[in-house]
Write a structure and sequence with these properties.
Order of helices and strands: HHEHHEHEHEHHEEHEHE
Number of strands: 8
Structural class: alpha/beta
Strand order of the largest sheet: 3-5-6-4-7-8
Mean pLDDT: 83
Number of helices: 10
Length: 304
Amino acid sequence: MQLRSSSNLRLFIQSSSRPGSPYFLVASAWLLLNLLVSVGVSLWIMKQAQPMQDADWLGASLAFASVFAVAFMYLLVSLILLKPHIKSNVLVGLLLLQQSRYLDGLEQVLLLNGDGLGLAEDLLFLLGAIVLAIGVTLWVILTYRQATLDKLTRVHNRRYFEKALQQHLQSKRQEALDSCLLVLDLDNFKHINDGFGHTMGDLVLRRLGDVLRQCARREDVICRSGGEEFEILLVRASAEAGTKVAQRIMQQIAAATPDGLPTLTASMGITMVLPEDDVDSLRRRADKAMYMAKGQGKARVVEL
């Protein structure tokens, strides 16, 4: 596992640092900016500084060591493929922190007139911490979304849904809550892919994801479980309420049909969550209801 992670990181960095690539040029620009700022700060300090007789070389060594550590992180982030606004926040934050630590090291061995150095150091550290915190927060949010959402349809992926379903079943054992599981399979989707191309198939799936998000409530959990199959956990919903949601989805799917395609339909199976259910038994029952809908002629909702 460790070897695979190291290999992925190496490929990740190599793909962005290939000479001539846009990512390489951007990374080079960020590294050049770091160099120019560092040189500029050094020249500014040297013009007005003089050596300190009782210099704290140990403190300066620790400060400069932290400068190299932050600079190394700066180098890595500059080579990693990231969304531009996230990369900018992280790199600017690291650059400010790096310069703050650099000034701290210089303050241990150089004597300046006035308190300008200490004030600049504190200001750079504060700004760097704020900007870096914003960048890291955006990075965490992006990573979370990539780990839990289906990229094409922007609904949750199977892994997230299984965890959410498991948690819901555990909470249901402690609190009596009516809830349903709805399984939906788009009818004749293979014919769309074969007859109109995968680009049209992707458009249909995106529109289906939009429809499900519009029809579901805030507390419901939507998942693309694979291909053209989707699942919705309808929380605090009776069988009657769940069936109404399914019928509304059916109407909205038809209305969202792209131009040039036959009217879109879906086969849906819905089942109540029982106290004795586990994830597998619940999904099997909902799948069975969906296949019954397929067998009865498609474009319908079957409750089981």
